[in-house]
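User: quick one - fold this with iron/sulfur cluster bound?
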Amino acid sequence: MNLSKKSKEILIKSDILNWYKKNKRDLPWRKASRKSLPNPYHIFVSEFMLQQTTVGTVKKRFNEFIKKWPSLDDLASKSESTILNFWSGLGYYSRARNLLKASKIIKKKHASKIPDNYNDLIILPGIGEYTAKAILGIAYNKSVMPLDANIERIFVRLYGFKSPILKIKSELKILSNSYISKKFSNQLIQGFMDFGSIICTPRNPNCIDCIIKNNCIAFKKNLQKTIPIKSKSNQLKKKKYSRAYIFYNENNEILVRRRSSKGMLASMLEIPNDRWVIDKNKLVYDKIVQNLKKKIQYKGSIEYSFSHFDLETEVFFANVKKNHFLKYKWMKKNNFKKSGLPTVMKKIIEVAI
Ligand code: SF4
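Assistant: Sure. Structure tokens for the protein plus iron/sulfur cluster:
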């Protein structure tokens, strides 16, 4: 039976809402705090954490975060280095900076209440269209439809789009507007998100148990494993190169320094390393190593994956005297795993020590 466009939308919305009631994921930021809606501060924090990080990783770190800073006022009073130290292991440190900046603005301009309208949210640092809509829909039950990767994938399959998602963003947005709920926005948004994460998964979707398969073009045409197709630019990641230097002193300490306040991992602590380049032949020794080239020993290399490129780093080691590097910071070797060093720097140390 061929349903009209409107009937198809109504049926899918109602199926997803029913499915969500029985199958919703138990996530710490969803706990209801008022009128069966979650605490907006919890949604605000979780949405920053979830940008580029999996739900599994965020679950544990979210609880630690809320224990340390239970309210927006607690968070807004903290320094950037405190939040960056906490963020170690989550990556994409600009999110932590933006989360803190946004919380300070909310404290000052909105009396510490997370805004419940699009215009006030969208101008906050680190908040784009998706995050603003996720906060509005999930925390305030506003009628919106944020398009995350799970929801986009479901729509691509339901409607059988054969172009890469990047090329059909505007079509997906128009389509998703038909799926906005007036009364149950909070549940429908999270229902789609959970459905994409549990049933309509990126690889091997569980079409057999899918309650909307009768309305799914991908299922009817057996395309569910081939769409959404990836764009070529997604498949080819750039590669960059660097060399890093572990200087180890007589007190079992490792030399560290602060990165510049601009660019990748801005203002974070780092192991000294050469400027990252695309052409390996263009690597230039960092100033700190200029007079020590004969002392350094090669220890191995690591490849670390950032969102837009992979970084291959050769790691070198040298025993040095602390008093030859008076203006630098030192970190106890036994402390580096618990420190706020970015994960890539921790992996570099592991290669050498
Ligand atoms: S039938 Fe398969 S591809 Fe279609 S929505 Fe359901 S799980 Fe996704």
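One thing worth noting: Residues 237-352 form a domain with the Nucleoside Triphosphate Pyrophosphohydrolase fold (CATH 3.90.79.10).
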